[in-house]
Each structure stands twice: as structure tokens, then as C-alpha cells.
Amino acid sequence: MAWQWFHRLGSPKWFYEKTSLWLPYLSIASVLLFVVGAIWGLGFAPEDYKQGNSFRIIYVHVPSSIVAMAGYYIMAVAGAVGLIWKMKLSFVVMRCAAIIGIGLTFLSLFTGAVWGKPTWGTYWHWDARIMFTFVLLLLYISIMALHNAYAKNDLADKICAILALVGTVNIPIIYKSVDWWYSLHQPATIKITDESTIAASMAYPLGIMVVAFYALYSLLLILHVRAEILQRERKTSWVKNIVLSVSQKR
């Protein structure tokens, strides 16, 4: 009985109906968090004593990097659930997470390059963190490419899930790369076990932006999965009823 909710998640109809209730709250939360975090970080946080105003890209670069890495774990867990419990919906989540992950990782690399020019004097340098973040982007792209390469969806899902699980080793490498190797990247300023070296006036808006990116990620993932469900289940009666209801409202 305690695991009933878990198995219900494998039902496309149940997932679609339940997430309809979450979307308004996630949408409002995403907008409010982004507005508060962006105004606070870009308008009221003090200048960095070394980097000046160029540091403010941290409010996009760091959250996108964090959520890109966390999203990879979500993708890998979804793949594992599909392999172990044979839930096809989890494979849909895996593929949708890969698409969003590509966008977030690209945003992380792009904003890092923009930040790197005034800070390091170059847009790109193959230091450890950049290199393994680029590997993260390739892993996300590989998941999508592999799935499109196979005619049989079931086989493609299994292969992609295995690749996603193997690729999880890259995430802790990205996180610890600035500690393990000499790098242009500065050591971590936000720490869980030790004292953080970032000022509170800069850290609070950064924290809000991280939560905002998580909220947006959740919203995009749910919307993408719902769209995939409608496509996959388009011949079922419950999806036909949804389409009929929407057409009548128009």
C-alpha cells in the first residue's frame, strides 16, 4: 500500500491528471523567484572587489550549472526506474530531462565563456571544470542521438538508460575538479560542510536564483513529459476526451 503512489507514477493518465494541479503553482513560483532573484542580484548586490560588475553573471551561470548537474541525476534515476521496474513513463522522463539538460549545460558553458573573457582574458580554456562540463553536454546529446538512432524504442530506452547511469561518474568529477586539479576556476565559494567564502549579500540572491532554476526545470520537465504523453497516448479515449474538451472551449 505504501508503494501505491510510486506505481501510479507509471500511469500516463494519472501523471497527466495530477500534474495539472501543480502547473499553476510552479509557474507562479518560477516567475516570482526569477523576478526577486534577478532584481536583487543584478540591482542591489554589491560589486565584487576584484571583478566589479562582471561577477553578476554568477546569478545565471552558477544556477544553470547546478541544475544541469542535478538534472543529470534525475535523468539517470528515471532510466534506472525504467530498467528495474519496467515503467515506460520513466523512459519518457529520461528523454525529456536530456533535452532540458542540453539547454542548461549549453547556457552554463556560454555564460562561463562570457564571464571568462573579462576575468581570465579568454572566452575558453580547457581547464578541468570546463572540460568535464563539456563532457556533460556530450553525454546529454548522446542520450538523444542514441535514442533517435534506433528504430525500436524499447531497445533505445534501455541503451540510453545504461549510458545515463554510467555517465553519473562525471558529476562528482565536475564538482571536485577545482579541488583535485590546478584550474583557472576559483575554488568553491559556497560550501556545505565548511564556511562559505561568499558574502551573505551576494549569497542570498544567488540562493533564490538557484531555487528559481529548479522551479523552472520542474515546470519544463512536467510540460515536456505531458506533451510526450499526449503524443504517445493520442489513440486512447482519455486523450481524445481532452482534445475534444479543449476544442469545445475554443
Protein topology:
Layout: H1 4-8, H2 12-44, H3 58-85, H4 88-120, H5 128-149, H6 153-167, H7 170-180, H8 200-232, H9 237-249
Outline of the structure:
The protein is built from nine helices and no strands. By secondary structure, the protein is mainly alpha-helical.
Provide tags for this entry.
250 residues; 77% helix
What does this structure look like?
The protein has nine helices and no strands. It is mostly helical and 250 residues long. The longest helix is centred in the N-terminal third of the chain and has 33 residues. The model has no long low-confidence stretch (mean pLDDT 91). It has one domain.
**In what range is the share of β-strand residues?**
under 5%
The global form is: globular
Instruction: Give me the strand/helix succession.
Output: HHHHHHHHH
What's the number of extended β-strand segments? Answer: 0
Number of domains: 1
- Count of individual helical segments: 9
What is the straight-line distance between the termini? Answer: 41 Å
Give a short account of the largest sheet: none
Counting helices, strands and paired strands, the structural category is: mainly alpha
Roughly how much helix do the residues carry, as a percent range? Answer: over 70%
> What are the segments in which pLDDT stays under 50 over at least 5 consecutive residues?
none
Radius of gyration: 20 Å
Mean pLDDT: 91
